């Protein structure tokens, strides 16, 4: 794996053990069951329009009930509990049974809207039914106390479950009489949507201040106001999310399940209110209460459940899937700690844990009743049933996965989809955070597939239909154990023949790779899989055997090629090649840009491409304009809408092209420059507050923010800055007047074990120290490192940038998505023709960008030639300045210099240095002519439509997943 993706996420130190409830059969009907109570919320929705609004709350308790039945099961007592749902209720109930020394043999939990109907089959400590009336009463009383959350009255029915309102089946609602009247009363109590006028919002906010945050409405601070506002927004998200899922359930379209181990969601508040269309109302409501929306939005921490490009792309794609009304679900992991926080001390990166959940997370809903046991270790045994032999995995350990749901609202639609993240249920036996990446992967895969298969089986009983109803997308190879898991479940548990299961699996999965380097491909030691997942290893071996036999038939006994293509890599330590497994089993393999696909076809997966060319496609990445313009650059958003005369571009981004017509309009220029200047001022204030460095907004803000990696060549940038500094120092004073002032801004995290990347950060600080304190230089050049780069920092920096750098060695960046965000915001690009930049050039035109450096097809020849003899003098000079200690830390920087000198210069910094400086000089010249610069800036935004994740998702839907929009009616 590359250093970036292998930087083991410090996430996830969950304490878990196989608790007694791990063996429970927990059934949720929230998301699409045809099980009993399906008509419950539908009725509520349809009656919403006509019924009067909310009644008082005291009758609500009439809906709770406990009943006991000893006839339902031969060997256990059934307790049926119906109550209003609340977080942790299920845990409370199971705890009561446990404390009373009772054992839950089975539990069926159904959930609709705000109500639970739970049936627990319980035995006493001797494993027998509970028949004694006194004991039964005691249990009921204890349950009653635990469940009663303060509403006051609580009705307990006698031993037949007909008392209380026990609505479990659609048919029951059709019955006349008392039961129906009560059901209708419940619907009547909540038959309208929450209102979004400022007064209603204010009431809701204060309600949450008092009852959720538990503060007095006369005394709460910004953070508490943020919490109360978020809960008010969440209530509105939940309404739409219920309706969306009910609608999906009713329509039963083919669904996409997006399986990704990483999501960089950033903050949710602003994005949610914008997508819900209630930002202005919220701002008005808050103003009257004495709060500023922007200030409250700043209270939120980032949800950083991932590393870099892949993870942020997943978040953008979720936004597009919701907005485009696709019936999609995201699955991921709810890591206990997010990506480390980067703290810089003396220019050195230190990693601190990101306790992102410490202050609560209002954007998630804990689904205690959606939980699955995940198995690990153990042995595989053989069983014979009806003369047929079956493999049975006898696990050595089980961990319980609990769902946390995160509603993802679409923009301009009612559709709100779900991102379901799994957490290990805590209990003190061991720490999932210290567990292997493989264990995390399987935990994720197993829980997600149990959930997906359970949902499918609620409405279908034939797996032949599975690929017609389900598309499984693997976001890189990290979730690719899902392939072996589906085979295992279909063959061992569902008892399908291997051939039939294989036929299904081949139609289910698609896979996207996010790396351009063969070294970046994931491999897992066979011994490790064999120990943690013994049955999966057998399945993988069987798949490989089958594949190898077929391959021999197709290509003959070309052993070298056979061994390259094998899923199993032989050697001192045997490995499973997860990419090979994915290619063999997926119907489609996607690259993330056109150049990336070329690299896959000709280098990384050449053998496979030659065999199955039809499997290989590309879908150029995109980013969501909702987050990257509407949320992060509201003034540009307003300006665009004003000039286009519509806000429709927020959903239909190609409309941005309409700006081309005004690219030379002096009035637009005026307004465009004003917006950009205000954004630069905002960024300058942030930089001063964070680093103490004062910067001039007249200078060109030149930005490189992304993960620190040698191939991304932050070092090239810093060496270029040293060169600029050196030139200014050696210039006649009178000539300095002609220098275009620059503020160079660098930000990004280095993987904790990536030494060279950390040295690059240190060098950036050392150079900044020298330049920023040199009185000769003044405002002509400043260098600032922005620490702890994350989504929120990007939202601030990108709108305030004039120039941004995307300067990877050609052939190394699979796509790159940062460039697209800058482009949308009218920031010019200084870039190599790598990844998606090649397609950006086609849209924007090379004249409106600063392109330099070797092209993809030139790189290998340059490497072969070697470079020792032809390094440009300017390059040798700046490297020497570092080597000789001009910026201090002489010894520390030697190994860094070695990476770019002599034959060490794998990433071709020396080769590209001259053209890099030329591109920088061209940028200076363009900046001096502000009219030209502004025209280029407008054309960048105008041409950015193709790089929206809306387009990417539409392409995937049509060409890979075969899914259609399923729009929930308003
Ligand atoms: C990154 C690539 C980028 C690409 C994103 C999204 C990972 C592992 N890979 O070039 O380096 O833009 O994925 O596809 O984050």
TrEMBL record:
Q: Extract one GO BP annotation from the record.
A: carbohydrate metabolic process
EC assignment: the record states 2.4.1.1
At the top of the EC hierarchy, this enzyme's class is: transferase
Q: Which domain of life is it from?
A: Eukaryota
Can you say where in the cell this protein is located? Cytoplasm
Pfam family for this entry, one: Phosphorylase
Q: Which residues cross the membrane?
A: none
Give the UniProt keywords, A-Z: Allosteric enzyme, Carbohydrate metabolism, Cytoplasm, Glycosyltransferase, Pyridoxal phosphate, Transferase
Entry function = Allosteric enzyme that catalyzes the rate-limiting step in glycogen catabolism, the phosphorolytic cleavage of glycogen to produce glucose-1-phosphate, and plays a central role in maintaining cellular and organismal glucose homeostasis. Phosphorylase is an important allosteric enzyme in carbohydrate metabolism. Enzymes from different sources differ in their regulatory mechanisms and in their natural substrates. However, all known phosphorylases share catalytic and structural properties.
Q: What is the designated name of this protein? A: Alpha-1,4 glucan phosphorylase
* Record lineage: Eukaryota, Viridiplantae, Streptophyta, Embryophyta, Tracheophyta
């Amino acid at each position: 794996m590359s250093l970036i993706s292998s930087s083991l996420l410090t996430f996830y130190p969950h304490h878990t053990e196989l608790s007694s409830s791990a063996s429970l059969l927990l059934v949720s009907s929230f998301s699409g069951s045809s099980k009993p109570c399906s008509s419950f919320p539908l009725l509520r929705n349809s009656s919403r329009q006509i019924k009067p609004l909310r009644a008082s709350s005291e009758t609500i308790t009439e809906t709770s009930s406990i009943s006991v039945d000893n006839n339902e099961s031969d060997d256990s007592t059934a307790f049926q509990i119906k109550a209003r749902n609340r977080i942790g209720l299920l845990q409370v109930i199971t705890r009561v049974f446990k404390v009373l020394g009772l054992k839950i043999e089975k539990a069926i939990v159904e959930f609709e809207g705000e109500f639970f109907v739970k049936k627990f089959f319980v035995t006493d400590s001797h494993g027998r039914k509970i028949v004694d009336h006194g004991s039964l009463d005691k249990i009921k009383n204890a349950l009653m106390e635990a469940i009663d959350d303060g509403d006051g009255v609580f009705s307990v029915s006698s031993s037949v479950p007909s008392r209380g309102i026990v609505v479990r089946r659609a048919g029951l609602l059709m019955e006349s009489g008392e039961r129906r009247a009560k059901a209708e009363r419940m619907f009547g109590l909540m038959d309208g949507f929450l209102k979004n006028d400022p007064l209603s919002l204010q009431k809701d906010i204060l309600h949450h201040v008092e009852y959720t945050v538990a503060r007095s409405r006369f005394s709460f601070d910004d953070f508490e106001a943020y919490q109360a506002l978020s809960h008010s927004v969440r209530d509105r998200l939940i309404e739409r999310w219920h309706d969306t899922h009910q609608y999906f359930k009713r329509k039963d379209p083919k669904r996409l399940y997006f399986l990704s181990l990483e999501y960089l969601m950033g903050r949710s508040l602003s994005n949610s209110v914008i997508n819900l269309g209630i930002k202005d109302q919220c701002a008005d409501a808050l103003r009257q209460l004495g709060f500023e929306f922007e200030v409250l939005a700043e209270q939120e921490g980032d949800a950083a459940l991932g590393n870099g490009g892949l993870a942020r792309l997943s978040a953008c794609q979720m936004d597009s899937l919701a907005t485009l009304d696709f019936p999609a679900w995201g699955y991921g992991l709810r890591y206990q700690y997010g990506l480390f926080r980067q703290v810089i001390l003396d220019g050195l990166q230190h990693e601190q844990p990101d306790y992102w959940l410490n202050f609560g997370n209002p954007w998630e809903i804990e689904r205690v009743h959606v939980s699955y046991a995940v198995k690990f270790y153990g042995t595989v045994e053989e069983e014979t049933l009806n003369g047929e032999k079956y493999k049975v995995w006898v696990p050595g350990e089980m961990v319980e996965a609990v769902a946390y749901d995160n509603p993802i609202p679409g923009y301009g639609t009612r559709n709100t989809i779900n991102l379901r993240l799994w957490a290990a249920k805590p209990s003190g036996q061991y720490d999932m955070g210290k567990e292997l990446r493989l264990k995390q992967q399987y935990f994720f895969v197993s829980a997600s597939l149990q959930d997906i298969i359970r949902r499918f089986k609620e409405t279908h009983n034939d797996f032949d239909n599975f690929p017609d109803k389900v598309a499984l997308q693997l976001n890189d190879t990290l979730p690719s154990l899902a392939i072996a898991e589906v085979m295992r479940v279909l063959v061992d548990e569902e008892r399908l023949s291997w051939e039939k299961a294989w036929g299904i699996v081949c139609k289910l999965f698609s896979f996207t790779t996010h790396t351009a380097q063969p070294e970046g491909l994931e491999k897992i030691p066979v011994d490790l899989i064999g120990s943690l997942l013994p049955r999966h290893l057998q399945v993988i071996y069987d798949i490989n055997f089958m594949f190898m036999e077929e391959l021999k038939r197709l290509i003959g006994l070309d052993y070298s090629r056979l061994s390259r293509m094998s899923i199993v890599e032989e050697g001192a330590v045997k490995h499973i090649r997860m990419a090979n497994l994915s290619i063999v089993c997926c119907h489609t393999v996607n690259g993330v840009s056109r150049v990336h696909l070329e690299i896959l076809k000709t280098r990384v997966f050449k053998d496979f491409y030659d065999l199955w060319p039809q499997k290989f496609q590309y879908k150029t990445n995109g980013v969501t304009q909702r987050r990257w313009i509407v949320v992060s650059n509201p003034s540009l958003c307003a300006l665009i809408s004003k000039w286009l005369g519509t806000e429709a571009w927020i959903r239909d981004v190609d409309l941005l092209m309409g700006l081309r017509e005004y690219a030379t309009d002096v009035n637009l220029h005026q307004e465009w420059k004003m917006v950009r200047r205000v954004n630069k001022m905002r960024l300058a204030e942030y930089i001063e507050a964070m680093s103490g460095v004062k910067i001039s907004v007249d200078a060109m803000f030149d930005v490189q923010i992304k993960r620190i990696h040698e191939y991304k060549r932050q070092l090239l940038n810093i060496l270029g800055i040293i060169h600029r500094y050196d030139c200014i120092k050696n210039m006649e004073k009178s000539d300095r007047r002609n220098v275009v002032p620059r503020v160079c801004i660098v930000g990004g995290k280095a993987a904790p074990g990536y030494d060279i990347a950390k040295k690059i950060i240190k060098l950036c600080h050392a150079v900044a120290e020298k330049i920023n304190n040199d009185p000769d230089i003044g405002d002509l050049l400043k260098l600032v490192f922005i620490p702890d780069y994350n989504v929120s920092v990007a939202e601030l920096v990108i709108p305030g940038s004039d120039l941004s750098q995307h300067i990877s060695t050609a052939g190394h960046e699979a796509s790159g998505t940062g460039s697209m965000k800058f482009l949308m915001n009218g920031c010019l690009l200084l870039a190599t023709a790598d990844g998606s930049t090649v397609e950006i050039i086609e849209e924007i035109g090379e004249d409106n960008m600063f392109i330099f450096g070797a092209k993809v097809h030139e790189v290998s020849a340059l490497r072969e030639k070697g470079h020792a003899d032809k390094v440009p003098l300017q390059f040798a000079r700046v490297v020497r300045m570092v080597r000789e200690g001009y910026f201090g830390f002489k010894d520390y920087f030697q190994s860094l210099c070695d990476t770019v000198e002599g034959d060490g210069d794998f990433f071709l910094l020396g080769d590209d240095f001259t053209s890099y400086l030329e591109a920088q000089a061209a940028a200076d010249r363009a900046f001096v002519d502000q009219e030209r610069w502004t025209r280029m800036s407008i054309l960048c935004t105008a041409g950015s439509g193709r790089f929206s994740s809306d387009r990417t998702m539409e392409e995937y839907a049509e060409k890979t997943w075969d899914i259609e929009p399923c729009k929930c009616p308003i």
